[in-house]
Every structure is written in structure tokens, then in C-alpha cells.
């Protein structure tokens, strides 16, 4: 690698230091992702100090790789070490943020760095030639998104998200028809189908892999009120069954669609007159300068360039991108025919807006 020298007298000293820190922290994110996927972080949580050999044996991994990973985690001030005993440990307060021992496992999100970096060559080609990168180039994306949803949507679904629409929980208890568009692996649908056995649930998604996974899980759980279908929703404005559902949901499912306007118009078409459309989508602005204060602005734009925008463009789509923003979202919803639109944010979720829409 080239030598990196910080010029302390430079007028750009603060920015230069930011870049150095970002480079270092990017390496830490890659190591955290590896630690999450290999189980090393979980193996360190709540244990007494371990040698690299003991940790390798506990995790069923190669000791040389474990030892080098530990070195990086110590350098990143994530893992602590005692050089006299050559042992390592993960402090409890850090373990709560990096494993399932706490309310939110931030190591889940570290996976996005490596996942999106793996398609950099494809994305660079698109910068030069146009077009997009197809879904097939992201074999783990639905898996990671399901883990993300498991921390943002599922814990808040019954106590915070569904109650955003007054009376909705009571209607689900009595029995209504529910559709989730762009459902991915369908974990939110499974949770609702189990909680509300009198209601009927359907999930649509373009990914056969995601739908196959959801069907297997549904069969194992014996959820007879839930079905899944592989479906391209780019023409949903004309193929949606009119007045078929009392509730339609999309969880982070609009902005990377090929034809988001057609999907929204189809959702409006398929809702009953008294129906509700509940939307979770990325919180942001449609104006770049207003995203400067967004706590996750840069990484969300990186996700957009390397996934959400480009997979839409790969289908000849609109390429809205992750950060299409609240202003544009409201315009799309109004153009689809929704007149009563309320926007909410939840305290636990800095990443998303929640829209409650009625025809």
C-alpha cells in the first residue's frame, strides 16, 4: 500500500483526518461483517478471556485466520486483549451492539459493505456504459435484508407500526384480506399471519429464491392463511385485481422497483374503498443539500448506487434510488390516487418513514 501522511498544517486537515478515519473504519466494518458471519462475535460475547486457539476451537474455525481477525479487532478498539496471557474478550456493552444479546445487532449492517463492494466492477461499468446490475448478482441480499427487517420492522410491528392506522389491529383480529408487495422473504407476513389467524395474507415478490424460502418457512410453521407468489409488479397498474384487499403493505419495497408508479397505482386499484396502504420506506429528502444532516446519508447513497438504483435500471426501470426522498414519495403516492396520506417516524428507527395512505 502507498504511504499515507497526514499534513497537520493543511487547511484541509479536518477533512483529511476524516478520510483517514473513514478508511480505517471501513476496514473495521469488513472485520465486523466477517465476525458476524463466522460466529466469532457471538462466541466472544459473555465469555471470559480466550486465547486465539480457544476461540478458534469454540467457533470451529482456523486459528491463523482467527488470530489475524483478532488483531484487527483490537486495532479497531472493538476487542480487548491482555498481552501477558495472549487472551481476548469482547466487553459486554460492545457485545450488546454487535450480537443478538442486545436489542439491535449493528453487525448485521456491516454486511452491506462487503456485499455491495462485491459488485463494484459491475457498477463502474454502468457508470461508463449505462444500464444496471441485475438482482442475480446479489445472492445474499434478501438474506441480509431479512435480518435488517427482523430488527426494524418485526419488533415494532404490532405495538408501533400497525397502530399507526387507527382501528387496523381490531380489523385484523376480526379477519381481513392483506397483501404485501415486494415481500422478500415475507417475515412480516408470517408474523401477522400467526398473530391474526382470522385474516388472509398474500405476498408477491419478483425473487423466486425469496419466495421459495418463504414458502418453506410457511409450510414448516403450518400457516394455512398465508400464500406467496412470484410476481413481476411492473404492470400491477393493469393486472391488480380491483377491490381485492383491505390492507396492502410494502416494507422498503417501492424505491427499487422497475416501475414504482405502476406498482403504486396497482395498490390503489386493488384496495377496497375503506382499505389502508401502509408503507415503510427510507427516510430522506429529495434534495441533496437537505441530506447533509442525515446520520446515515452517505451510506444510504452508497446502497443506492450499488444496489437499489442500479437493479431498477437493469430492468429498464425508473431508477429512483434508495434516497428518493419524502417529497418525491408523497408526489408518487398522490399521483397514484391516494388523497389521505400521513407520514410518521418511529423513535427506534432513524432510517425509515412510515406512511399511512387511504384511497
Automatic annotation (TrEMBL):
Tagged with keyword Transferase: yes
Key words of the record: Methyltransferase, Transferase
An example Gene Ontology molecular-function term: methyltransferase activity
Name of this chain's protein: Methyltransferase domain-containing protein
UniProt GO BP: methylation
PANTHER family assigned to the protein according to its UniProt record, in alphabetical order: METHYLTRANSFERASE TYPE 11, S-ADENOSYLMETHIONINE-DEPENDENT METHYLTRANSFERASE RV2258C
All residue ranges annotated as the Methyltransferase domain in the record: 173-286
Keyword S-adenosyl-L-methionine: no
Domain (S-adenosylmethionine-dependent methyltransferase Rv2258c-like winged HTH): residue spans on this chain: 28-99
Ranges in coiled-coil conformation: none
